[in-house]
Amino acid sequence: MIEVHTPSTWELCRCCQNxxxxxxxxxxxxHGYSLPMCxxxxxxxxxxxxxxxxxxxVTQVKPTTKLELAKQIIKENKSRADCGIFNTVNIVGDxxxxxxxxxxxxxxxxxxxxxxxxxxxxxxxxAELEKFYxxxxxx
Length: 139
Ligand SMILES: [Zn+2]
Description:
This protein is of the alpha+beta class. The protein contains three helices and seven strands; from the N terminus they run E-E-E-H-H-E-E-E-E-H.
């Protein structure tokens, strides 16, 4: 759930400390986050996200199924994102970078908050991936 509000006049951009133009409020499970930002920094975040996605090489693995591939990617990257795994739509304002995307499976990471977003799996597959994630040891 994402709500965009007009910020209070005194609020400053979380990134550059100039006056905030927008305020994002969103919820992850029981956690609510609020992110005042200026328009410039929102644009910059999108730019950085795109660059990071370019720089991250696609994980080279040849698994048998999408689920196995997702597990592999999660295992390799869990140390950078041990705060959760979601299959919900991207959160506006969070700098996401793509770890993998072949059009059928997409795994994104938010290094700022330390979580994954995974798209393309069935509910059953995602449930198994969540279990795998919870049990996966951080290397
Ligand atoms: Zn700013």
